[in-house]
């Protein structure tokens, strides 16, 4: 494959690092005080309550609603871990699959909001491309230490 400036594996690494920066920004821009006080989960509860698909409401009520504080921390620190993991290339395949799952959850929850759909679809697409291109082979700690060779 011919490319300009970088080779194909390096461009995939650029995508991986860019996706990591995107996840890190998702974590950074949260108002942590409000988020951990339940603001994010209250917002999501309102979205789930009005959702057109009953399984989303039921799933939210079963999994998230009984443990709002845990879920707030889980979501925020999952975004931080995904960002750092992808930027540094640590446990990259696991981070890519976890990010893909999180984006699909966000996508389903926010099915009516086209602005959110674009972001989540794009992040899911990048995750899939980097995963199937084995994007941990270049510029990553995974490559340096070899757990996924």
UniProtKB/TrEMBL annotation:
The lineage of its organism: Bacteria, Bacillati, Actinomycetota, Actinomycetes, Kitasatosporales. It is a multi-pass membrane protein. It is found in: Membrane. This is DoxX family membrane protein. The chain crosses the membrane at residues 94-114, 121-139. Its main location: membrane. It comes from the Bacteria. InterPro entries: DoxX. Keywords: Membrane, Transmembrane, Transmembrane helix.
